[in-house]
Amino acid sequence: MSDLTTHAHVIPKTFYEVSAPSDFTPAPSPLPENVYIKASVPFPTLLDDLSTSEQADCLLGEAHIYERLAAHPHPHICEHYGYAGRDGLLTGLCLKKYRKSLYDAVNDGDEFDEDAVLSGVRSGLDHMHSMGLVHGDVSPSNIMLESQTIAVIVDFDSCLEIGSEVLLKGGTPPWTNESDVAQVISDFYALNKIKEWLREKRGKDTNGGVAAPV
Predict the structure, then answer these.
(1) Residue ranges of the alpha helices (H) in the chain?
(2) Domain boundary among 59, 75, 97
(3) What phi and psi values does residue 155 have, to the nearest 5 degrees?
(4) Where do the Protein kinase domain residues begin and end (predicted)?
(5) What are the pLDDT digits (tens) for 93-135?
(6) Looking at the domain assignment, is residue 4 inside a domain?
(7) In the chain, how many domains are there?
(8) Alpha-carbon gap, residue 105 to 111, rounded angstroms
């Protein structure tokens, strides 16, 4: 018997799938052509205790955020079509698929309007904050470019109510101030780090107006 077989684990569905709440929006059928399905895939680092529903809870938490945001849409926040399901379970989130992340666009040398991108992200964050939410993981990989001037914020599995304790997934270094509490200033800290990163990578002065209000 190989080592792989010896150390294999049977992963219960309860670890990574959860019942879909009745008030959630199911994705349309057929799905739009330009769609990305974010599914819950068990991470090896979480396999020590398969009796938990940690991965499923993370997907459900993000689904709740998308449902809330979808009720108050904003042009710089990811469009949510609804949830993907099977046998009464929530198996994924159906989201609009965007062209490329800001991280990839910068590394590929793409041309885009930095001021417009930063301003758009700031607008999206302001909208979330007005709803009492903190994104919690603003980074170049979580900002998608729909065009050279339109940026869209994605990935809400770290999103929390303002003032909530950060227990599971927080921000991504070096874009995070590693706060233990969900704060508006954490999102602005990340956005200013992105502004500095753009200046270093592209050798331009990006003013963008993203500093947090004093």
Answers:
(1) 3-6, 13-16, 54-70, 102-107, 114-130, 184-202
(2) 97
(3) 65, 95
(4) 1-214
(5) 999 999 999 999 999 999 999 999 999 999 999 999 999 999 9
(6) no
(7) 2
(8) 8
